[in-house]
Design brief:
The complex is a heterodimer.
Chain A: E1 7-12, H1 16-29, H2 34-54, E2 58-66, E3 69-75, H3 97-105, E4 108-112, E5 119-125
Antiparallel strand pairs in A: 1-2, 2-3, 3-5, 4-5
Chain B: E1 7-8, E2 18-23, H1 31-42, E3 46-50, H2 57-65, H3 71-76, E4 80-82, H4 85-89, H5 97-113, E5 119-124, H6 127-130, H7 135-143, E6 154-161, H8 167-176, E7 179-181, E8 188-193, E9 196-203, H9 208-218, E10 226-230, E11 234-237, H10 239-251, E12 257-262, H11 264-272, E13 281-285
Parallel strand pairs in B: 1-7, 2-6, 2-7, 3-4, 3-5, 5-6, 9-10, 9-11, 10-12, 12-13
Antiparallel strand pairs in B: 8-9
The chains are: A alpha+beta, B alpha/beta.
């Protein structure tokens, strides 16, 4: 993402460590502090796991910097889904737990769970206080 | 190789660290250096890469670029430099520990004068063969380089090819470095002590079985019916593994109290899972010292 170029990569389970590195590098380059980087990496990781487990074994990641925010989009070619993330809390990562956590750790989330695959977009402001 | 008290993941390295790394595979050899390089670049540090002398700078840059964007830009602006031990000690032809340490101090000073936060170097020990050095001399240097790191403006990884160095040398170097790195990013290792469990690396979908097994072993028969689970050397904790930890704490009958020591981002995840907490769980949040 250095120089404004977006980061794009396809991933499967074996790519998860590299995916985390690339998100962390992009987030740090955008100015997020270390804790916020870790939170964004976790949020993206949880979405990537959803894509691997429910979206056909893998997916695509697109990270870009948009108007003072880092935007991470995870998409897959699976059957899509309905957002059923629990509102109150999660226990041992039930269905929807990853989405719930991603929502908690970021400043915004958009979900398109249509029948041609799921597209989930996270937004983290570069200079905001961490969402608590 | 087993984990112990000075084992960490490369992601947790900081300026002031002098680390040992190892590999026995020509693809794996790039993984630790790549993370080290990109972490340094993102922190505003200058990075000097001294890989195998048989590998050109362009090839090395290309290999690193496969792990993250921006290597070319960093190279163009002088933040990322490819060099060699031969070049470092030039115009001298032969290696001496004194000469090398002096040159690395100079490079650290130059990096700081250029406005970087510090200098980190990754050195593939293939230079030992390239310069015809005796291994004993190199080992002596490695054991007496502490002054180079005292200012906390310099960090270094020395990577050893297990196919070339004698196993006894590799083990002696692992033990004598202040920091020993996990072989590969993404690995998870556990270090057990009586009543204590230290987890190192990444706890995620790929390493979940190792994570659960290590926690289960730690809870089998701890002394004093208490246990410590230290997560501070983890560089990644997935929600699934955090949930597994809390579930195992809730299920153990052999323990009255479990202290989970963790860093702020990990504490935040565990707090989100508070519904799973049991009475015997104590969360001990540390500052992020590493």
């Amino acid at each position: 993402m250095t120089g404004g170029a977006p980061l794009q990569m396809r991933f499967t389970a074996g790519d998860l460590p590299r995916l985390r590195l690339r998100v962390a590098t992009a987030a740090a380059a955008a100015g997020l502090d270390e804790n916020r980087c870790e939170e964004l990496v976790l949020a993206v990781y949880e979405l990537a796991c959803n894509a691997i487990l429910h979206g056909g074994g893998g997916g695509r990641l697109l990270v870009s910097q948009v108007e003072g925010s880092v935007r991470c989009q995870v998409s897959d070619d699976g059957p899509g889904f309905v957002d059923t993330a629990p509102a109150g809390g999660i226990d041992a990562a039930p269905p929807g737990g990853g989405l719930w956590l991603a929502r908690q750790l970021t400043d915004g989330i958009e979900i398109d769970g249509g029948d041609r695959g799921a597209v989930v977009t996270l937004l983290v402001q570069c200079r905001s206080n961490a969402a608590n | 190789m087993r984990a112990d008290a000075h084992t960490i993941a490369v992601e947790r390295m900081r300026l002031g660290d002098h680390a040992f790394a190892h590999y026995a595979d020509d693809d794996v050899r790039w993984e630790v250096p790549a993370l080290f390089v990109f972490r340094g670049l993102s922190r505003g540090e200058k990075v000097i890469v001294m890989m195998d002398p048989g590998c050109s700078a362009d090839v090395a840059c290309e290999r690193l670029a496969g792990f993250g964007g921006g290597a070319d830009h960093a190279r163009d602006r002088g933040q990322l430099v490819f060099s060699s031990m031969r070049e470092l000690i030039s115009p001298e032809k032969s290696f001496t520990a004194r000469r090398q340490l002096d040159r690395l101090r100079q490079e650290t000073d130059v990096a700081c004068e250029e406005g970087f936060a510090g200098l980190r170097t990754v050195i593939d020990m293939a230079w030992v063969d390239d310069l015809g050095m005796d291994v004993e001399g190199v080992m002596a240097r490695e054991k007496h380089a502490d002054s180079l790191f005292e200012s906390r403006q310099y960090a270094e990884i020395c990577t050893y090819d297990r196919r070339w160095f004698d196993p006894a040398v590799v083990e002696e170097m692992r033990v004598s470095h202040p920091v020993a790195l996990l072989e590969r990013p993404g690995d998870l290792q556990a270090h057990h002590a009586p009543g204590e469990l230290y987890l190192i690396g990444d706890a995620d979908m790929a390493t979940g079985d190792i994570f659960r097994a290590a926690v289960s072993v730690a809870f089998e028969a701890p002394p004093c019916r208490q246990a410590l689970v230290d997560l501070t050397r983890l560089c990644f904790l997935s929600a699934g593994c955090a949930g597994d930890l809390l579930r195992l704490i809730g299920q153990t009958g052999a323990i009255d109290k479990v202290v989970v020591r963790c860093r702020p981002p990990q504490a935040k995840i565990l707090h989100r899972l508070r519904v799973m907490w049991t009475g015997g769980l104590v969360l001990e949040e540390t500052g992020d010292t590493r």
